[in-house]
Amino acid sequence: MALTIAYIGLGGNLDNTLELLGSARKAIAALQGVSELAFSRFYRSAPMGNVDQPDFINAVMAVETSLSAHDLLKALQRIEHSHGRVRNGLRWGPRTLDLDLLTFGLEVIADEGLTIPHAGIADREFVLYPMAEIAPSDFSIPGLGRLDDLVTNCPKRSLEFIAHG
Ligand code: ROI
Q: Per-residue pLDDT tens for 43-61?
């Protein structure tokens, strides 16, 4: 069975996000046909897009998988659903765990359910900087070019290291 190296972005903006991301990491590594290769440090950053919400915590994970991109995506969505809602007093809080399939080997995919490489990688400091920690130094993202060039061209904004993975 062919193995593919995929990069997964993890993010969330609840109080317990660090534990939530750690739990999601374990669930990903435990998937059939998936093994963890590397996990970045955790970073905090101001929300991109709608700024009227708490800061995010993000990290990036590299895995090796025998799954297809679509099957890996489905598995990530199941993990989002099982981890993305936390007991918050008496009611269920909003879904605030995001697992993004960033790259999948050299594949370029654009269909209704899946865009690979993930749209917006090049603008997202909270994806590029942690990804660059764990990717090979000559890593290129299909269609976007060398990761180290993308990092150089992406301002760090408010991104700050908060914890080791
Ligand atoms: N902003 C940051 N900093 N990190 C995220 O993971 C993130 N995810 C999102 C939006 C709301 C676009 N902003 C984000 O989905």
A: 999 988 877 888 999 999 9
Q: Confidence class of residue 87 from pLDDT cuts 50, 70 and 90?
A: low
pLDDT in tens, 119-153: 899 999 999 999 999 999 999 999 999 999 999 99
Reduce the DSSP state of residue 147 to 3 states and report it.
helix
Three-state DSSP class for residue 89: coil
Specify the pLDDT at position 86.
56
Residue holding tokens 């290129």?
140
| Residue pair 150/128 in contact by the 8 Å Cβ criterion | yes
Structurally, how many domains does the chain consist of?
1
**CATH number for the domain harbouring residue 113:** 3.30.70.560
The answer to whether 105 and 141 have CB atoms below 8 angstroms apart is no
Active site residue 91: no
Contact criterion met (CB below 8 Å) for 81 and 92: no
Q: Is the distance from the beta carbon of residue 49 to the nearest atom of ligand 1 less than 6 Å?
A: yes
Q: How far is the CA of 2 from the centre of ligand 1 (A)?
A: 32
Ligand 1 test: best mutation among 58, 96, 157, most atoms within 8 Å of CB? 58
Domain that residue 153 falls in = 4-163
